[in-house]
Design a protein that fits this description.
Radius of gyration: 26 Å
Strand content: 35-45%
Number of helices: 1
Largest sheet: 9 strands, antiparallel
Shape: globular
Number of strands: 50
Structural class: mainly beta
Amino acid sequence: MTSIGQVRKSFLISALLFVTQSYAAPAINGVTGVLDNNNSIAISGSGFGTKSTVAPVLWDKVDNIAAYSKLANGASIPVGGANPFDQNEGPNGSGAVKYNTSDPQRGNSTAQYSAANRGVLGGLTWSATDYTYVSWWFKYDRSVSGGDHSSKWIRLSDSSDLTGHTFSWTQMHNYLVGSGTECTLVWATTGNSPNEWLFYEAWFDTAAKKYIVRVNGKIVSNSSWTSSCSYQINELWKIGFDGGGNSPPSMAWWMDDIYVDRSFARVMLGNAPTYSGSDQFEMQVPSAWSASSISVTVNTGAFNSGSTAYLYIVDANGNVNNSGYPVVIGAAGTSQAGGATGGSTTGGSTTGGSTTGGSTTGGSTTGGSTTGGSTTGGSTTGGSTTGGSTTGGSTTGGSSSSQVGAIASSECANPPAGTVFCEDFEGPNPKSNFDDYDGNPDSENQVISDNGPSGDASNSVMRFRVPSGQSGISDVIKVLPGSYDKLYTRWYFKYEAGFDFNAQNHGGGLAAGGRDLVGQSGIQPTGSDRAGFYVQYEAGSAQPFAYSYYRGMYQDCSDPNGSCWGDSLPCVYGSSYCTKPQHLPQATMPSLEAGRWYCVEEMVDMGTPTSSGQAANGRFALWLDSELLGNYSDLWIRTTAALKLENLWLGLYHHDGSHSNVGELIDNVVVSTQPIGCGDGSSVVSPPLPPSGIQ
């Protein structure tokens, strides 16, 4: 088994940008027609581009397939001829996938695909282009993220060489092979959200050798493959649940709304005012397409009559209007006062005021008044911010950084209860409040002006940046005023626009033991020397987790020379590393995006010292924007009560010079003996103990 620790040193993926040029985003300024299911509506605007073949390769709601019209509930899905698929297979032969009308349906559907065990449909082919887009809704009845199996949700291939040139997306990773060569491999768990409908998407640009996969609108992984892997995709080889590896689980599943196209150009209804904020999408079926007008057949999906949804148009280059055009289901469309929707997004990540790749900064900011404050000795006295309200993607007053709740820039003037250290970077020399041992120059951990999470124009933040082409760390460390058995720490962070999430990295967090041992890696702690829980992202998927060193660490300790690399909590490495199922993510993990502020909080409880790890009860919990990502109470952290939390280490580390020129901003750092929470009134509470007896 290749070491994850070694992979972090060597496995770098190019950033996913479907286009390298700057394109104007589509803008919608009107809709005519009533938004009822199966009605035709016309969308007017600009920047829609062209779509040479308007209809998708496949739009399969199951109940819209004429060949299925006489099927009875429970009948096997027929294949060949007028049917959309040429294969229907399962572990016991053909016919595993059924026509289902009796189980609860999704939204307006009256029929869906289902299987009581493993099963796949496939064999759909088309004339290849450089672009492929596939989406579908899927639900399964139990978590399948653990175990030593590799079971596929989908396989997309070159029809001339199905097994030799194929993309596979499994419950623990996604990868692409070509002529026996592994072109790319990304570990990303997606099999742990049972009994809920999930929206899966896969995009491919085979000319640029890049792809992206998403679940519920959030990036699971973005990747590129090597120039030696020549590729085309023109067959949906398998879709459903294709059990593989050792002892794949039995799992009932349901599937609906399969959309396949040879172009990125499409129309979608989302459930939030921004594309990047939506986690439900319903595909609309185009019947006419020009640069200024699109006609579609409405698919209301799971949107109820009278509810508000938001129209999004993606052009052939992957650009999308980030600010959605609001419509009411069941009502007639209207022209939008004040002009067209705006915001420039390509595929989904932000570069400056326009967006390339995944997240978006949209809207404009006007006004906002701030009353400053004075600072003495690192804590701020006074200062208030007059915020603003947001309507339709534009902000009046205060901050346009709306991803996290507003927080006072001078938070440390009135710090949260239980605070043992607070730094908001508003003092005359904030760096003097840390204990700098390695002498980072100002260019690497610099205090700069930035609106920050408070949206205050006079606010200051710290910027971490590793010089271009170099490896190493930009950091600060605080030796805390005492030693502690249990602490919380919270800080805000933002990766600057253009940040490369494919670059290998490490971050920061709470550390136990002496300052001289902070950051030591490759060696398993003894239980009496050190422990550390450092928040970072997984390269490629950008999923956050804590890179964790503690006595009982186990996930990547198979090196024959005795090296041991940090655990992932929650474990995003995949089930072959995460052999304790309770450490796997219990929900779909978010993917971090550049250009937006996040609030992160972690709790470490050192637990009862034990010499053998029996009955270990050390605890770690991690929150992002007040949402609990992981909660673990079975960690063997120490063998002696003398090992306590003594340090806060924050920074950005890169393994080599293959990283972007930009860095990471942090602000409003607090360490406390009590839960802290984010500044929008959200609070975190010490989470309950997970169920006992899990092995």
